[in-house]
TrEMBL record:
GO MF: guanyl ribonucleotide binding; ribonucleoside triphosphate phosphatase activity
Protein's UniProt name: Uncharacterized protein, YigZ family
Similarity-based family: Belongs to the IMPACT family.
GO cellular component terms attached to this protein's record: cytoplasm
Domain Impact N-terminal: 15-115
């Protein structure tokens, strides 16, 4: 699965109607609602939207005939295998009726065209790790963690005998990382994993 690196937009004129798509990365339903509110234009005829975060998703036709706007936008998101994303397609009516098929193509096509212009980043599943190490092993542990792709150290605090490191490990390699740190410190490091 992929998400957007940053927000992106695209404008199209279809049979005199102006369609503007705005897409951006989100992390939750609340973030989706905030994105939709921020990018909906009250002067437009319709602000149709869709979002997906994991198994959660929603869409809205905002006054267009049922199933002609929100669902095609959501299908564009799913077709490109995107997650953690919201898309708003705003329409200013140009005087020519598009019909149901035309609306589906216009909303879905504008959303898909916008998403295809975006820079995508892969979503990597992670596990949170708490790593407790002594001062004697600290430099080696941090150096090894720093050389592993996808490892993010979020915090480090110190105790009388060493350090407590909070990090996110790529889920696919978490067990191997734990084993490698345990082996290189001869078992002196303590690591606990939890779902993020």
């Amino acid at each position: 699965m992929f998400t957007l690196e940053r927000a992106t937009s695209l404008e199209q004129i279809i049979k005199k109607s102006r369609f503007v798509a705005m897409a951006g990365p989100i992390a939750s339903e609340q973030a989706a609602k905030a994105f939709i509110a921020a990018h909906s234009d009250p002067t437009a005829n319709h602000n149709c939207w869709a979002w997906r975060v994991g198994q959660g998703y929603r869409s809205s036709d905002d006054g267009e005939p049922s199933g002609t706007a929100g669902k095609p936008i959501l299908q564009a998101i799913d077709w490109l295998q995107l997650d953690n994303i919201a898309v708003v397609v705003t329409r200013w009516f140009g005087g020519i009726l598009l019909g149901s098929g035309g609306l589906i193509r216009a909303y879905g096509g504008t959303a898909a065209a916008c998403l295809r212009t975006a820079t995508l980043i892969e979503i990597v599943a992670v596990q949170d790790a708490t790593i407790v190490t002594s001062f004697s092993d600290l430099a080696l542990v941090k150096a090894r963690l720093g050389n592993i792709a996808g490892v993010q150290i979020s915090s480090e605090s110190f105790t009388e005998t060493g350090s407590i490191i909070k990090a996110s490990l790529p889920e696919s390699a978490a067990q191997q990382i734990v084993q490698m740190l345990t082996d290189m410190t001869s078992g002196r490091v303590s690591i606990s994993l939890s779902e993020s």
